[in-house]
Write a structure and sequence with these properties.
Distance between the termini: 37 Å
Helix content: 25-40%
Radius of gyration: 25 Å
Structural class: alpha+beta
Length: 455
Amino acid sequence: MTRVLVPSGALGLAFDRNALAAGISSHPDIIAIDGGSTDSGPFYLGSGQSKYSRAAIASDWRLLMEARARIGVPLVVGSAGTCGTDSTVGWMTDITRELARELGQQLRVALVKSSVDPAYLVQAWRAGTMAELADAPPLSAARLNELSNAVALMGVEQICAALETGADIIIAGRATDTATIAALPIRNGDSPGAAWHAAKVAECGALCSTDPLSGCVLVDVDDQGFEVGALAAQARCTPDSVAAHMLYENADPYILHEPGGFLDVSKASYVATSNGRVRVTGSSWIRSTAYRVKLEGAYLAGYQTTILAILRCRRYVKHAAEWATRLSRLVKNRIYTSMQLTDDDFDFETRLIGIDAALGHLETASVSPVEVGVLGIVTASSQELSLEIARLINPYMLHMPLKHDENLPTFAFPYSPAETPRGALYEFGLNHTLELDDPMQIFAVEVLQIGPGHD
């Protein structure tokens, strides 16, 4: 049996310290936590930056490093620095090095790199070892070479390779949310089906419990199944809360694809045990004939400036969509004539906050807001050009009438200047898998000694 402590759904989101203490007192075999995702869009991958505050990451990581030192077990973080690029693995390593000096800890740290050279992907694409997933963007050698960053999502094999080094701390690049949790149980010979299912349930910490914000959960994996429980005093896991997590961020409630195979929980059984814990059996791991990893990549698509106006007059609120359409048509014609630009040089879109900002044309609800925010988004090849276009649009968003023969209205800008340069815009360029001859083919493990006396 392998016991895994999961302090939170993501490093930097904090957790209940009493719950963490309870988990440490239960003597886990490993502490595993996720460090990121693509939930917040392509910017973090494209730019190779962390979404989360460095101070928040360091605060949580310090507590986990102290906890690890007390019980002498490995501490592992996957998708370090949100996107898991080599640059954010380095960023997370710097934080670890600083904390090790402060805490007086001498540590063996294994880094698992997951960045992939676009030139390698061009070769793989030409060799036919890349496969499209649903709605994958079209590929070409030129588009692949435009990727500013590309990563491969590691599974348990790469985490296990790092564990084999005897590392105190493992800082892994981009990994599936489940890999860091499933790795040690599988390495120890526990049921792979149970290990992957336990990892899926625990990947977001206490989200599988009645108190999602409490953070910490403990999973025990054995050769037949697993048991999971939340660690905060007020939190409980129930068969419903545990079973429901297969629906979270997953297209199929019974199947979960991972590197090297897939998890099948169609025959799983969920039974409440003592102290708000749940026992799960019947999960299966189906190994694939080929070992495939998912790829993620992003490229620079331009630079953006936004401008926001507030419509409050009842008539304009009622006809906000018509007004926005007229605005778009008018300002584009002005941009064509005044700036000698074409549609290939820029993009301008509006989003009506309070009406359809989230779903756009897919919105079906009928709403009658008191006011509507009209968000204008300008995208162009440079920050300077997008800002210049937004400045041209500014007076129209402030004064444009609904009909051409009406008096000019005045709307509200919530701040001044109304234009806000957003910087670089990145777009996802990959939704593909890559077949590997060996699980470590494109991954690298590097071992460091850090702490007093080492750096």
